[in-house]
What does this fold into?
Amino acid sequence: MILVFCEIKDGAIRKPSLEALSEARRLAGDNNVSALFVGSEISGAENASSYGADTIIKVESPTLAGYSSDLFANAIADVIIAKNIKILLLAATSIGKDVAPRVAARLGAGLAADVTALCIKDGRLQAVRPMYAGKANAIVDFLAEVQVATIRPNVVAVSTASKAGTMENFPAPTSDIKAIVKEIIARSSEKPDLTEADIIVSGGRGMKDGANFKLLEDLATAIGGVVGASRAAVDAGWDIPHSAQVGQTGKVVSPTLYIACGISGAIQHLAGISGSKFIVAINKDAEAPIFKVADYGIVGDLFEVLPELTKAVKAVKG
Amino acid sequence: MKILVALKQVPDTESKIKIADSACTIDQGDLKWITSPNDEYALEEAIRMKEAQGAEVIAVSIGGDKAKDVLRNALALGADGAVLLKAEATDDPLSTARALANFAKGKDFNIIFTGHKCYGNDNGSVGQMTAELLGLPHVHVVTKLNITENKFIAEREGDAGVEIIEGNLPAVITAQRGLNEPRYANLKGIMAAKKKPIEEIDCVLEDATIKVASLALPPARSEGKRIDGDPATQVAELVSLLSSEAKIF
It folds into this structure.
């Protein structure tokens, strides 16, 4: 039996959770896959049956309305113990990365974080995970009996598989909350975090000024992407937040498409984008290292190319 | 106020990684080693708290003799004490967390700081695990921290935006870039650090829960197609390729 911790937002299961659920279905073969939802007044959990969940377990309580690391960890660990589960999968989202280590520590479980591939070998999970920000790939074996893995978003495919999805309620933990989210200052847009983004439009020192990031915003809006930045751009004092930084010292990303504009391609940056499926480089320096890893390279003035590209994308997308 | 800061020694982020003959670890040959940058934010925050309100700051690291460099640097920057838990560093986050929790247990630290992720094994898990083992709250990926009396208010990067998290001390805080701007050690600090002792404690990392069976370089990306012409021609061809090959449109 494989348990998948799923996140839900506005009645829809989040895409990284669907990816984890799909992966669990592939790994489980004929065995049971259970989708676990933790929260208050959960709606939409039944949709997990379309992605391979034989069982849907809900842990509901008003105390679980807001996310708290310790209470959510308790809820997940309680289910694992009660049902004698050996494998737990989570998406490596902000919550997944926060709660999985607590669950693993509670249970003495092995944890492989931010994995990019999984298989079952001799009845146990085996994981592939990038190390050194993607400069190396490790194959990780589990030595502990309980095995936990967080799956990097955007790496495994979502696939549908219609299953029974038998609903089950499981009692909520009664422990005190040690730390709780009091408030969320939402981003101005509904765009996903860089680590979950399917398309990233990123700018570097070649953007020359923070105000020019408007060109990237325009392209991102047209193409349905999120804006990122190189460390050089973040450090330039252009008022670009650290949370936008891509690379070894920022976010390690895995989009389908990464468009690097005015980014030369320092080794830390190249490591952080190595999981991208397609890389486009736009740079006026034909010798820039970014071209060595780019699928499509445009040597040119980004101040001319970017507006053209935005216009062309708008035309294609209608 | 007693503060523990857990630091890890990692290869410089500028380093190219080579794989050792064992194919399980990296070739450590000519690497330059540094304090994991996220740990530097953790240490800086601890030192600022010491300067602002008074605190005893203890730096701890797990590793061999080489890891003393990291501790010596922490002393130079203002840590009051340094402890080396002598063991072969491991890629298993739970073994690491158990060693840290065992060390911290009963020592009444009000705050345990560490980086949110160490550059290298990239687990991003040791802080949360240490908190769980000690029965403490934690806040992970912290970009702003306020301590008042026995409470903390921390800001962290969440999926939907910045989350503001409250709880009581003692607690574990994992630092992220943006929390502060770490200082450099000055000559006076460096000289003083040379005279300060580094306590060494033999430590056995037991009950590994995962192990790296093999380590390999990722497949090299090869250079793709250069698109020539004037901007309009380049863009037209790029959009065509993004449509036909990358299936973006």
